[in-house]
Amino acid sequence: MANLRDIKKRIGSVESTRQITRTMEMVATAKIKKAQEKIEAARPYALSMMEVLGNVARYAKGAEHPLLEEHDERRRVVVIAVTSDRGLAGAFNSSILRLTENIIRDEGDAGVRVDVIAVGKKAAGYFRYRGIEPIAVYRDISDKPTFTDAKSIAAHVIGPFAAEEVDAVYVAFNRFKNVAEQKPEVHQLLPIERRVVDEAAEGSDVSAEYTFEPDAQSVLVRLLPTYVETLIFRALMESAASEHGARRTAMKSATDNASEMITTLTRSYNRARQASITNEIAEIVGGAAALED
Amino acid sequence: MERTLLCEIVTPERIVYTNEVRMVVAPTIDGEIGILPLHAPLVSPLKPGEIRVMYGDDRVEWFAISGGYVQVHEDKVIILADHAAAASQIDVERARQALKHAKDRMAELPAEDEVGVNACMADLNWCEAQLSVASKDRA
């Protein structure tokens, strides 16, 4: 039979663990809200950007731009793996790493070289451990990404893609569906799909006769890189919100599990106590009976 | 009533400013332009520099921007910028330090590191735009 004192000790330790996971759950809940507000705050810029892009695309129809070009040959691709700096967030990081790993395997089978840009300590640590040196590492930004971070990441891929040193760029991140749900996804960043530009053009207000300074083509040339930067920024922000969401879910189930464990332990503690009392009574009664004889 | 323009200055992180104004002056890559109500639809890239908005009562407000785009359509001026700050919000000391930091970094960067040089150049321009706008605001 389990020792009474041992059970008591375990209950104590599980209780303090529950205290920690409960606090982490509450912190994550507060942070989700902030991260969600940031995504909301970025919406006006993204909407206006698409509007401008649509207007420009309508005038520069069929325009050539290096960022829109599909390369004939596929020799090298870059994957931006967006993870977090901290763990204890369930499958949040492992699913991104698995997705990235899949790309590396599939492209590798086709003879394509895959380079990784690691966002978050988890991705950096994982790929280094696997013997894949990331071409760039971003730490301490996953919690509160800024547009400057997104620009800096974009700079690593836009130039090389335009120079045809890189033939495709993907970003793997956790899309924030809602507070309880994150979806790991891979999006193609480069080449920019022509469909995106065409759809933006169709959505634009055809009645307005725009003037472009200096001309539509050169505005487009500047606009497309900015568009890629906003896509990366969006991925970073969604990932930040998802991280807190995933951590909240993970910590909630940890707290629930701890509570359940405490119930079970308390039950066996009471049972053990009961048993020892019964035992004592039996001994006393036995002792008294022995004296009477 | 006098016709006004709706001016919006937006960065990827937030809406910095939105108000009804009489005129907006913005630094396009071909030079400064003044935008009044009934302006023809226009799209143009912007250089790092200052945005001036003038109200009906001749009050003027300055903003520093790090470059971006302007779109004018139906008395609505949207300015999209990577960074933007109202003159009164600029932290001069911080901008000065950032400028010094950027210059130091620039000096150390090898010329082949195009990515680094461009990023550094953008920081430099942004700091200078802030400082220039801040000095005008106080003058």
Descriptive notes:
The complex is a heterodimer of chains A (293) and B (139). Chain A is α/β, with parallel strands linked by helices. Chain A has helices at residues 4-59, 92-109, 121-129, 147-162, 194-203, 216-292; strands spanning 76-82, 113-119, 136-138, 168-178, 181-190, 211-212. Chain A has 2 domains: 4-21 and 250-287, Helix Hairpins, CATH 1.10.287; 27-249, Pyruvate Kinase, Chain: A, domain 1. Chain A contains 6 helices and 6 strands. The model of chain A has no long low-confidence stretch (mean pLDDT 89). In chain A, strands 3-2-1-4-5 form a 5-stranded mixed β-sheet, sandwiched between helices. Chain B folds into 2 domains: 5-87, F0F1 ATP synthase delta/epsilon subunit, N-terminal (ATP Synthase, domain 1), CATH 2.60.15; 91-138. Chain B has helices at residues 92-108, 114-138, and strands at 5-10, 15-21, 23-28, 31-35, 42-54, 60-73, 76-81, 84-86. In chain B, strands 1, 2, 3, 4, 5, 6, 7 and 8 form an 8-stranded mixed β-sheet that branches. In chain B, helix 1 (92-108) packs antiparallel against helix 2 (114-138). The longest helix of chain B is centred in the last third of the chain and has 25 residues, at 114-138. The radius of gyration of chain B is 16 Å and the shape is globular. The A-B interface holds A 38, 41-42, 44-46, 48-49, 51-52, 55-56, 146-148, 150-152, 155-156, 159, 205, 208-214, 216, 218-219, 222-223, 226, 229-230, 233 and B 8, 10-15, 28-30, 40-45, 68-69, 71, 73-74, 78, 80, 82-83, 114-115, 118-119, 122.
Notable features of this structure?
heterodimer, A: 293 residues, alpha/beta, Helix Hairpins, Pyruvate Kinase, Chain: A, domain 1, 2 domains, 5-stranded mixed β-sheet, 6 helices, 6 strands, elongated, B: 139 residues, alpha+beta, ATP Synthase, domain 1, 8-stranded mixed β-sheet, 2 helices, 8 strands, globular
